[in-house]
Known about the structure:
By secondary structure, the protein is an alpha/beta fold. The chain has 2 domains: 2-220, Spore Coat Polysaccharide Biosynthesis Protein SpsA, Chain A (Alpha-Beta Complex), CATH 3.90.550; 226-433, Hexapeptide repeat proteins (UDP N-Acetylglucosamine Acyltransferase, domain 1, 3 Solenoid).
Amino acid sequence: MFTSLILAAGMGTRMKSKMPKVIHKVCGKELVRWVIDASRVAGADEVITVIGHKADSVRPVIENDARIAIQSEQLGTGHAVMMAKEHITDGCVVILAGDTPLIRAETIKAAVEYHAAQGNSATVITAEMDDATGYGRIVRGADGSVLRIVEQKDASEEEKAIKEINSGMYVFDGADLKDALGKLTPNNAQGEYYLTDTLEILRGDGKKIGGYTISDNDEIRGINNRVQLSEAEAVMQERINKYHMMNGVTIIEPKSVFISADAEIGADTIIASNVTIEGETKIGEDCVIEMGSKLTDAQLGDGVHVTSSVIIKSSIGDGTSVGPFAYVRPGCRIGKNVKVGDFVEVKNDVIGDGTKISHLTYLGDSDIGKNVNFGCGTVTCNYDGKDKFRSTIGNDVFVGCNTNFVSPVKVGDGAYIAAGSTITDDIPDKSLAIARSRQTNKTDWKGNKYAK
């Protein structure tokens, strides 16, 4: 068990954004949330996040998942940790950056275990890079301990040749960290408190400083601009897609498929190219999601087939087909073996099993029974310009083409509605409803004056 302390107070000016850097998203999740979640999975029993720049924007994103400390004035990494000092326990403390979403829970856990096994007062998480430009270099002693961290501008030619770099992430003994923070001073031209100076303080006190080297350099990628944000997105999306493929999902063209971190997909489901799966979407087994589809917070049962369609905040039952070019808007609960066909739009509907809505139809705010057949061009007229109204359509109803339901109306079980009807009154069970003007032929008409 350990405390995770996440530094997320920076301004992030290079993002050129009105939003704080740490709430920009990778694969649908805020940068800082990735770090919080990794900490929790790794075993953190307490997560503290230090925020500062536009704290009111960051707070709602993290307040349910982390204790918050405020750094109202940004005076360096050491100062940020000092702002959380009252929450730091005497146990193990892992210090992470809020703009490194690619850090894995496995890496955090391994660093904590290494720190404990080595009996270190502090452990620097390091990486090896052929091009270490811009990073502080790790200078180790003969026994492998970290002697010092040298910033590139201060490094000798020999030190610049060192490939091991400081990731900016650390593991500390909490008691030693608090003691070192009490001795920390801003001995630099910027008047800032540097966390790396605590290592010098601990070394001066005879404490052991170690270094844990990670194998995947992507994990320490910091996000400072939109280019780096897109690069992190690509790495994370590759991880997510690989995870699903290793768990039995077929993804035809992984580089064109975008799946959120919180999505769940069952085995033997097939995802075609150019598909977007957002939010907390859950897809069952044996589904097919064809090219160009977009699912947002959708719940799909088993054997669902979606063709080039959009489904938002709705549930789809087993064996149902959607599309092509259908639009399932929020609030729909669609049953099993339903057909929602081409150019069909449904919104806030409950639709029973076996119902067919084959094409060119709009159904909104309706409760629809089982085995209903909707003809082409059916519309629920559910809005009078001020209020929305619900209609109820029973089981085994046949709706002829070009029918309008002027809501609210109730259609009984087994009713049959003639094509071209505009329904304004309730229809009893097993009744035939005809609501259209009787045809009149004018035999003495002079003909179409525009006809050639």
